[in-house]
Design brief:
Layout (H helix, E strand, L loop, with lengths): L1 H11 L6 H8 L3 H8 L2 H12 L12 H5 L4 H12 L4 H22 L5 H22 L2 H4 L7 H12 L7
Helix pairs in contact: 1-2, 1-4, 1-6, 2-3, 3-4, 4-7, 7-8
Amino acid sequence: MLDAAVVAFAESGYDGVGLREIAVAAGVNSRLISHYFGSKEGLFRAVLDRVSDGPFLLTPEGAQGFMTVDPPFDDLAGLLTMLRSTSSRQAMAIIRGEVANRYEADLAASLTGPDARGRAALINAITVGIRLMREVVGNEALKGEDAAAIVPYLDAIARILYDAPADKH
């Protein structure tokens, strides 16, 4: 059921698919989905949990893998679900909560120095922006043969954000 929901929300967004359609794709009765997830909102939350288990791709260890590996669909499902659900206030409220409580709070807790929450938000925004432009839009400067040339710039950005400056001006 969850696998079918991941595909459905990534392809159609929150408002673009119903529980009945997901149930048909999963080969189950829609009441079974309601039994396990409570509602469409509960299923959506479970999908976000499933597709957002991966680590941040822009890390202090470097951006080389981030810029040279084409992620499988499952790794893009979270980004596609978010993009295709932007017209839904309900879905965006859930996504905002997930971003703030999962990504930013967890990452901020691992950062030292000032402005940890803001730096975590920047790391998240940069990562999502690059993934959007690279994987969804297909920007050749970020995806093509020359993409490796910009890795040192991303590494510098990551170092700045992960290692807070000692002195704020």
